[in-house]
Amino acid sequence: MVKKSRGFRSRTRKKLKQKARPTITKFLEEFKIGEKVIILQEPSSQKGMPHPRFKGKIGKIIEKRGKSYIVEIIDGNKVKKVISRPEHLRLVK
After folding, report:
1. What SS3 class is residue 87?
2. For residue range 69-92, what is the model confidence (pLDDT) as tens digits?
3. Does the residue 70 lie in any domain?
4. Dihedral, CA of residue 89, residue 80, residue 54 and residue 76, to nearest 10
5. Residue 83 to residues 11, 19, 31, 46: CA-CA distances in angstroms?
């Protein structure tokens, strides 16, 4: 038998369903170091998309790397760093 593939976007049909077309300002948004953000993937852009297991997590921006940001989140007992582009991040209000 052939092994079933378990790719990066496997079993994400409902998680990554697109609601509406995003505005260009979402892709050009700037964040400051220390701001709190929520990780929510934008399905129309695959570049810089964090893994779906981090969807809805709240983290703090600790660094800018090129066009992307490094977000520090707490996952269980561990502190993890996630690299993500700005279209996949939202400010916490």
Report:
1. helix
2. 999 999 999 999 999 999 999 999
3. yes
4. -140
5. 22, 24, 14, 13
Task: Give rounded-to-5 percent helix, strand, coil for the chain.
Answer: 10, 30, 55
- Can you give the residue range of the structural domain that contains 82? 34-91
Dump pLDDT digits (tens) for 39-65: 999 998 889 999 989 999 999 999 999
Burial group, residue 16, by CB count within 10 angstroms (0-12, 13-18, 19+)? middle
CATH number at residue 52: 2.30.30.70
Rounded CA separation 14/17 (Å) = 5
Say how many domains are in the chain. 1
Instruction: With respect to residue 17, please indicate whether it lies within any of the assigned structural domains.
Output: no
